[in-house]
Write a structure and sequence with these properties.
Elements: H1 2-28, H2 32-35, H3 39-76
Helix pairs in contact: 1-3
Length: about 80
């Protein structure tokens, strides 16, 4: 089971690297092998963007939950 998971994660990583390299090659018009050294930096940028979006979404969710909590508390206290 663990071996299958490792192979799956490895396949996802390789597939992601190939996707990023192909995308960069199309954008720049350079060859696939020419852009391969840039893949780690692209992957890091993509990861950083995903983390930043997740943090923004979490903050917005917390803010909305806080507003709803205050509204619910007001209703429970009899001040609609």
């Amino acid at each position: 089971m663990l071996r299958k998971l490792i192979w799956l994660l490895l396949g996802i990583a390789v597939g992601g690297a190939v996707y990023l390299a192909q995308r960069r090659a199309k954008e720049t018009g350079r060859g696939f092998l020419e852009v391969m050294p840039e893949v780690p930096a692209d992957a890091r940028r993509l990861f950083d963007e995903v983390v930043a979006r997740a943090k923004e979404a979490m903050e917005a969710g917390r803010e909305a939950a806080g507003e709803k909590q205050a509204e619910i508390q007001s209703i429970l206290n009899g001040n609609p």
